[in-house]
Amino acid sequence: ESNLKVTGVDFLKSQNTRQHHTDGYNIKNLVVRRGQAFQVQVSLNRELRAADKLSLRFGIGENPVKNKGSLLSLKPEREDFNGWKISVVKKNGKECLLSVTSSPNAPVGKYNLHVKTGTNIYKPENGVIYLLFNPWCEDDVVYMANEAQRKEYVLNDTGYIYVGSAYSIYDRPWNYGQFEEFVLDACMYLLDKSKLSLTDRRDPANVSRAMSALVNANDDSGVLLGNWSGNYINGTSPMDWIGSVTILQKYYKTKKPVRYGQCWVFAGVLNTVMRCLGVPCRCVSTFDAAHDTEENLRVDVYLNERGEKLNSLSFDSVWNFHVWNDAWMKRADLPEGFDGWQAIDSTPQEQSQGLFQCGPCPVKAVREGDVYLPYDSKFVYAEVNADRVYWVVKKVNGKEKYYKVGTETQAIGKNISTKAVGQNRREDITREYKYPEGSKEERMSMQRAYSFIRPSGMMPRSGYASTIQTLSGSTQPLIPKEPVTKTGLHLEITNTEALHPGNPLEMAITVKTTTPGNWTIDLTGSCQLQYYTGKVQANLGTIKETINLEGTSEMQIPLKIAPDAYMKTLSSLEDEVLILVTAIAEVKETNDKLTKETSMRFEYPPITVQMPETAKLYNDFTCAIIFKNKLNVTLENCKLLVEGLGIFKMTTFDQGDITPGRIMKSEIICTPTRLGEKKIVAKLISNQIKGISTEKAITIT
């Protein structure tokens, strides 16, 4: 009687991947999701008989062993092994069709499949199977019930990241590219590098925390090196990326950190990694996000007597925007009520348990003020809820003294944004993170949070603590209110003309009073250029005026900056800058003080893409990218970056200088290699402009 031998294994890839929503992955191997059946066809040298011993062996890791749970031996007659099931679907001569269902909490990763018959072991070609989280499976902790949400948060490989300032939000198209070549392998490499135990690999909370650490290079030579210095000579400027694919491919190839990232790049890459592993994930942008190093729910801003912000004194900062991620999961490790979105952040800001990692922190814990829950909920709470306190530093008898000129209790954590499900628009999700300002729920949530965080008294916190004047009322009330002044003083900052590089910057500060009486108001205003992290790069000009207002009235004070005052700085910086306007108003009669700041972004002429609405698979088509320089300045050293997932590999084209009025037209030939809706993303960069982006969709049939 001849020994039973396996002659071949067919992984039925096209059928399995369609059912598992993994047909997008650009990889030879079979990719399946846990907790869901897939089929394999085994060919034998003879018919399978009742007495034959046949088993499928799935091994994970270096040396899989049964008692560690890293080797699973599945026999058709023995149903269940560690929550895995196997059955014979049908026998047809020498062919045997088997169905395998992994456990819905199986460790994710790469499994080696061997088929054992008696004492023979058959090792199939491409026998490594990739097992991912499964948002389609009700028993998986990442289960997401809504199909439109799964399409967006798991399967969409493009999107937008919202940046700018609360005053002017704009979208940056971003290619996540979780299905591109080597991206899944890069994620598997990160999983191995994380040194997570097999048990930890079952739980998306542990996996997402590990990934938040590994996407930055700080402790573990992870994917991206952060750099906010303004000097990117030996790498790629953070502004020059338009997606995660190039970054992850380069990292996988070199196994060395890729230079350089800033917050939206870290968030874009972490979003790719989580979606690639099967965890629903979205990029979340918060405007005016506090980076509160002491977790005392307060950020101090120091101004000089001209009303200009000083970098040197601040330990904390308010970032114009900060981008992190929300990952979707049930939290079995927490009390009930904290399932759903969890904030994770891979930008290296603060260490958590000795590593630069952040989250997962339940978004509901932030809203409810339950800031004792793991992980890092105090830090995330402070990012969206801190107060901003303004101090003017004055020299008195050669000593520096600090005068408080304003407190804002509702200025931090505004317009929290993500891309809407199934639509190319911004969705405001602030309500998921915070109750409405001033509501009863907000007050209760704040009292809860304050019972776990000890906010400090109202003392300025800088290197000069010894020279501080003691302020009256040095303890903070539990529920800070917006300061109500005797004069009903109110400040507004706007731009009166479009803010085009090369033109004068024309802005205005509007001072309003709403109470009867004659008021004399000293107004100080300043204009500066700053990075999105709040770091000032240049002082452009100041104004000082004394105005008289009576009763309910207002006055608009212009603030105008000539092009010569800022163009040189603008061209020499590697990063995008924002225009920061700060105003301080002091009422002589009542000693009321009020400070307000607004950040605005430069406005640019558009870049457009022309191409057909549809194209056929593997049939070339032409795509034209057009830009007209409508500014009054020459754009120097222009570069055009173009990438279209499944249609055009990321390429950079040098365009030289584009003089005012000149039209740039670039034509590229695209070859579609995948079906469905695909997008071309284009971005123009120059010395003067750090990024005008656009995108256009095409349907491949």
From TrEMBL:
Keyword Cell wall biogenesis/degradation listed: no
Enzyme class, broadest EC rank: transferase
Manner of cofactor binding, per the entry note: Binds 1 Ca(2+) ion per subunit.
Keyword Transferase: yes
Names of the cofactor(s): Ca(2+)
Stored SUPFAM superfamilies: Cysteine proteinases (SSF54001), E set domains (SSF81296), Transglutaminase, two C-terminal domains (SSF49309)
Residue stretches making up the Transglutaminase-like domain: 255-348
Enzyme Commission code: 2.3.2.13
UniProt entry keywords in alphabetical sequence: Acyltransferase, Calcium, Metal-binding, Transferase
One Gene Ontology MF term: metal ion binding
Binding site for Ca(2+): 385, 387, 437, 442
Family listed: Belongs to the transglutaminase superfamily. Transglutaminase family.
The name this protein goes by in its record: protein-glutamine gamma-glutamyltransferase
Origin species: Lanius ludovicianus
